[in-house]
Design a protein that fits this description.
The chain is of the alpha+beta class and 437 residues long. Helices cover 56% and strands 13% of the residues. Strands 1-2-3-6-5 form a 5-stranded antiparallel sheet, with helices on both faces. It has a 4-stranded mixed sheet with strand order 4-10-9-7. Strands 8-11 form a two-stranded antiparallel sheet. Strand 5 and strand 6 form a beta hairpin.
């Protein structure tokens, strides 16, 4: 039995401790206010300590807890300003950081997956992980032919941990919703559960990566590292030096941030037409700017299969929304089951316009400026239970073939807002999506 599996009880206890810790700090904060501290000072302390606990628990547990943290980090731009920087810092760390697996356990996985003579396949192998994430970590090595390689090793017991964590977190979605009010946390956890097997299948991930690498081989704008070797719990691919997108968010120039946002959207929207697959895990930890300037993409465990490109109605829906033809759009959304026929008389064209306006904003202009304030406003309207927009959302449906697509597009918008980027989304969509022009 692995350490991760053996610690299931401890894992659940730590997850359960999150709301208890929040409540305890709230009581302590009340005492400090009685003692004379200002409301703002107390709230700032509470947020800092809660953010620290959030990162410590989700990061330590890896598995589904870490995966949810990464998914939440995409939408950190939607976190209201009153929650301040602590949550942003904690969630951003979850994009690419987690406590590492010890070297002896890494060696045991490699023994099992690549054979006990696996060292003969490497000229060098570093026991220190270069990156640690939700269900695996990456080590740098030199392959037998002299190529620098990245060795992605799945944590022992990650399959049991991922499923157990997601089940527990599903029951805690109400609490997590409060930490990120602009995100439909229940839907997010449900989708993570649905694609658990894909995330754990490193052989399948390697095949996905090979398909992307072949389609983008020699591309002047995009870079997907080639796979060197693979096993059920290990993937070896070419090592590529570059600058993580998370660094651009905090340190990049306006021009660099603009370019990165445009390249990210272009890659995600074009890949169903170029590869027949959609990269389904957009968060800053999976993107980088290579030393040669190309936009690099990692992690192909979660993908959507679109062998004929995006669903046929995608272009017409975007066109009608862009052109503000909401009567026609409403009819098409009923026809395509975005509005179930039993609810058709509950959603007017005006309701639909109010609901979609924030999401269609980038298609109204040639160059849209994504900002945190815009993202917060859009998320706030969508989750305000007293507002008409929220009421409309109850009657809308997302057909199965659009679930991953919508999540990916929302992820791109969330990251563009973190980048505070100007990006030509209208031109990108017009170039790649049939039926919009």
């Amino acid at each position: 039995m692995s350490d991760i599996t053996r610690g299931a009880g401890r894992r659940n206890a730590k997850l359960a401790a999150l709301p208890i810790g929040v409540a305890g700090r709230a009581v302590g904060g009340l005492g400090k206010r009685i003692a004379g501290k200002s409301k703002d000072e107390v709230n700032q302390e509470l947020m800092e300590k809660t953010a620290e606990q959030l990162f410590a628990v989700l990061g330590e547990l890896k598995g589904g807890a870490m995966k949810v943290g990464q998914a939440l980090s995409i939408m950190e731009a939607a976190i209201p300003e009153e929650f301040g920087e602590p949550f942003r810092d904690a969630l951003t760390k979850l994009q690419a950081e987690a406590p590492p697996l010890p070297a002896d356990k890494v060696h045991a996985v490699l023994d099992q997956q690549l054979g006990t003579k696996w060292r003969e396949r490497f000229q060098e192998f570093s026991d220190e992980p270069a990156a640690a994430a939700s269900i695996g970590q990456v080590h740098k090595g030199v392959w037998s032919d002299g190529r620098d390689v990245a060795v992605k090793v799945q944590y022992p017991g990650a399959d049991h941990a991922l499923r157990a964590d997601l089940k527990t977190l599903g029951r805690m979605s109400g609490l997590i919703q409060k930490l990120s009010p602009g995100t439909d946390v229940k839907a997010m956890v449900d989708e993570l559960i649905d694609r658990t097997d894909d995330e754990l299948d490193y052989l399948g991930e390697a095949e996905n990566q090979r398909a992307f690498a072949k389609a983008y081989d020699g591309d002047p704008d995009f870079l997907v590292p080639k796979v060197v070797a693979s096993a059920p719990k290990v993937v070896v691919s070419e090592w590529v030096n570059g600058r993580p997108l998370s660094k651009l968010i905090t340190e990049g120039s306006q021009e660099e941030r603009n370019h990165a946002a445009a390249q990210m959207a272009t890659f995600e929207i074009s890949s169903p037409y170029r590869v027949g697959l959609l990269h389904g895990d957009p968060h800053p930890g999976n993107f980088f700017i290579a030393d040669d300037g190309r936009f690099g993409v990692l992690d192909f465990g979660a993908i959507g299969r679109y062998p004929n490109g995006l669903p046929e109605a995608t272009g017409p829906i975007l066109k009608l929304a862009r052109d503000r033809q909401y009567d026609e759009l409403r009819d098409l959304m009923v026809e395509t089951n975005f509005i179930q026929r039993s609810h058709a008389n509950k959603v007017s064209a005006e309701d639909l316009e109010a609901f979609l306006r924030p999401f269609v904003d980038p298609l109204y202009v040639d160059d849209f400026h994504f900002t945190r304030k815009w993202m917060q406003r859009a998320a706030g309207n969508a989750t305000d239970v007293r507002g008409d927009v929220y009421k409309t959302s109850r009657y809308l449906n997302v057909p199965k073939e659009y679930v991953m697509l919508f999540r990916v597009l929302l992820g791109c918008v969330g990251i563009a807002s973190q980048l505070e980027a100007h990006a030509p989304y209208r031109a990108i969509v017009s170039e790649w999506v049939p039926g919009i022009d």
